[in-house]
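Quick note —
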Amino acid sequence: MKALFQSADRQFWRQVRSIAIPVAVQSLLFSMLALVDALMVASLGDEAVAAVGLGGRVLFFNLLAIIGSSAGVAILAAQYFGANNIAGVKRTLAQSFIMSMLITLPFALLYLVAPSWVIGLAGGEGEFNQLATQYLLLTGWTVIFTAIAVPIESMLRAVGEAKMPTYISVFTVFLNAALNALLIFGLWGFPEWGVMGAAVGTAISRLVQTLMLVIYMYKWRGQYTPRWQDYKDGLVKKARQRYLSIAFPAMLQNGGWALGTVTYSFLLGHISISALAVMSILGPIESLVLSGFFGLGVATATLVGQELGAEQYERAWNKAWLLIITGVGIALCIGPMTYFGLVWIEQGLIMLNTPELDMALQVLLILAFAIPLRVFNMMGISGALRSGGDMKYAAFIDIFGLWGIGIPIALFTIFVLGWPLPWVMMAILTEEVVKIVLVLRRIHGKRWLANLVNEPDAVPAAAA
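Predicted structure written out below.
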C-alpha cells in the first residue's frame, strides 16, 4: 500500500489533470448536447423526445465501434510515445484511419438507404417512426466524419495532448446547440424544422469538428501526421497483426457493448414510449456524471500505457490501482448526494418537462447508486486491462456481461414478467456485479502488464 501512494507525486497528479480534465470536459459537453437536444424537442411531445433519443443511441453504437477500432492507436501510440518511437505513432494512426473507414462505410450506406428498417426494430409506430427515421436519415451518414475525428483525438491524447481536441469540441458543441435552437424553433428567420432541425444542426457541427481537427493535425502537429509510406508500412503483415490483435477485440468489445445499449433502447420501447422518453432524458444525465470518470479512465490508460512502454511494470501496476481507487472513492458519493438532493432534482425534472415523474425519480436513484459499479468496471477494463493490450479478455468481460447476463434479464423481465421500468433497471445491474468479479480476478493476475512495442527502429521524439 505504501508503494501505491509513493507513486502519487505532484508530477503524477499534474499529468492526470492534464489528460483527465480536458477529456472529461469534452465528454461532459458531448453528454450535455444529447441532453440539450432532448430538452429542445421536449415541447414537441414524447414522440419527438423518444425519436431523437433513439436516433442518438443508434449513432452512439457507431461511435463506440469506431472508438474500438481506434483502440490500436489509443494503446499502441501511448506505448510508442513512452518508448520514444514516433514512427510507430504515425503508423498506428494510419492503421486506425483505414480500420475506422472499413467498419463505418457500410453503416453510413445502410442509414441512407434503409433508415426506416433500422428504426422499425424498436417496435414503434406512427409519428414516432416517422420522426426517428427522418432524424437517422439526416445524421446517419455523418458517422464518416466520426471515423476521421476519433482516431485523431485518440492519437493526440495518447501522446499527452488532450487540450486541443477539447477546445475544438467545446466550440462545436456550442455551435451544435445554437444551430439546433435556430432550426428547431425557427429563430431569427431560420426555417422551423423541429426534429429535422436538430438533425441538420448535428450534421453541420460534426463536419466542422472534423475539418478543424484535420487542419490542426496537419498544420501544427505534423510530426504525428501519417504520410503515404506510413499507410504502406501499416499494411505490412507484422505491423498489421500487432494492430489487429488490439483493434479487432476492442472493436468487438465496443461494438458489442454499443449494440447492446441500442438493444436496451429497443427493448425499453416495448415497455412504453414514455419509458423510452424517460431514458432519453435520464441517459444523458447519467452520462454527464460519468464524464469525469471517463476522463480519469483515459488518463489511466495513457499513463499506465506509457509506463508499460518504458518497461516500468511496478509503476504501471501502482498507478493503475491508485487511479481506480480514486475513481471509485469519488463515485461512492454520487448516490447519497442524489438521495439528499432529491427535492431539488425533482424540481429540475419538472422544469425539463420529464414524463412519468415518479418513475423517472425512481430510475434516477437506481442509476446514481449504481455509478460506483460502472466506474470500477470502466476504469478496470478501459483503463488498466486495455493499456497492456489484454483486449480479448476485456472484450469477453464486456460482451459476456451484456449479452450473457444483462440483455437476457431485460428480455425476461419485460416480456415474461411484465415489470415496469424501475424494476427492469434494477434487475439488469446484475451485469455490473458479474463484471466486477471478472475484472478483479484479471487485474490481480497481472497478465495484462505487457510491453507491446519493443522494436529496433525507435525514432527519438526530439528528432521527429
